[in-house]
Design goal:
This is MIR domain-containing protein. The chain is 31% helix and 20% strand. With 318 residues, the protein is of the alpha+beta class. Helix 4 (65-80) packs antiparallel against helix 5 (92-105).
């Protein structure tokens, strides 16, 4: 019969439940099953005489020194377990499964104790990178009091991971959508203004030309702290400003953008997908204080009409 012997390297409850299901599928009743099961116990496990029920067998397994060693080993593994964020190659589902299994094996059943082990498994941030990394530890601590069960614990960490997955990382590919028109900031190759500086123009359109790489120092961008740069994916250039026309000026002009929430002046936290923001030119060596905006005025190049994008020093944006 192909079934592993019990030798103290599996939780007694798990082994007994599995073998009972196995024999039930074979249409063997519990009394006959118990007799057969006793023959599947490794001789290194010392059993008392007259075990006439599975409950007595279960208790005998748990009183054996092997079970003490088994629990201690799993508790050490639980203490050393560390969560690796998915953006760094981790697997949240696998981590949750390992955590729950180790709690089960080490018989850590109290939710308060489980929360402590879980919190200790989360990444800790040093002072050097605190302002540039998502703080799982802090976010979990905020939810501490309302977690009352293992299922609730898993639900909360899944929500934390979901929030983290929506944060904008350095060199992420983004699109900038204009709220009032629903169109996207784009830069179209070989399409230039016909007046003014006659440089590469940016319009609010909706196609693959609307993809930008966002660049900044650190891992995440924080409100009111992190200047950002935007580099067009197709052309590899950055949008900057000269007078009232938005053009692409490449690497020679070191120009960044400050961003702030469109409604919350002192918004804290990280920039994430679907945030509604205002962009302002950030250049410390000049008095530039210009905001990126669009408006209802259109212009024509060839036979096509475009929605214009401008920079100006009025913070009240359209």
């Amino acid at each position: 019969m192909d079934f592993p012997k019990y030798n103290g390297t599996i939780h007694p409850d798990e082994w007994i439940n599995d073998i009972r299901i196995y024999f039930k599928l074979k249409n063997i009743n519990d009394r006959d099953c118990l007799k057969i099961v006793l023959s599947f116990v490794d001789p290194i496990i010392t059993l008392p005489n007259r075990i006439d029920s599975f409950e007595k067998l279960r208790n005998a397994f748990k009183e054996d020194i092997s079970f003490t060693v088994f629990k201690r080993t799993n508790k050490k593994l639980l203490e050393s377990l560390r969560y690796i964020p998915e953006r760094k190659g981790g697997n949240t589902s696998k981590f949750i499964s390992n955590f729950r299994k180790l709690c089960y094996n080490s018989e850590v059943n109290d939710i308060e104790e489980q929360k402590i082990y879980f919190r200790n498994a989360l990444p800790k941030l040093s002072n050097d990178n605190y302002n540039n990394c998502y703080d799982y530890f802090l976010e979990f601590t905020k939810r501490w009091e309302k977690i009352k069960s293992m299922n609730h614990l898993v639900k909360e960490i899944e929500e934390i991971v979901t929030v983290e997955s929506n944060l904008i990382k350095n060199e992420s590919i983004v699109a900038l959508k204009h709220v009032s028109t629903g169109k996207y900031l784009s830069s179209i190759e070989n399409l230039c203004y016909t007046t003014g500086i006659r440089k590469h123009s940016s319009q609010v359109e909706s196609d693959l030309n609307a993809l930008w790489k966002i660049e900044f120092s650190g891992e995440l961008a924080m409100y009111n702290r992190t200047p950002i740069r935007l580099r067009h994916i197709k052309s590899g250039k950055s949008p900057t400003t000269d007078h009232r026309e938005v053009c692409c000026a490449g690497n020679k002009i070191k120009l960044s953008w400050e961003f702030k929430h469109s409604k919350l002046e002192n918004r804290q936290g990280y920039l994430k997908s679907n945030d509604i923001i205002n962009l302002r030119i950030c250049r410390r060596d000049t008095s530039l204080n210009l905001f990126l905006r669009s408006h209802d005025i259109q212009f024509t190049i060839g036979n096509d009409n475009f929605q214009e994008v401008v920079c100006h020093n009025n913070e009240r944006l359209g």
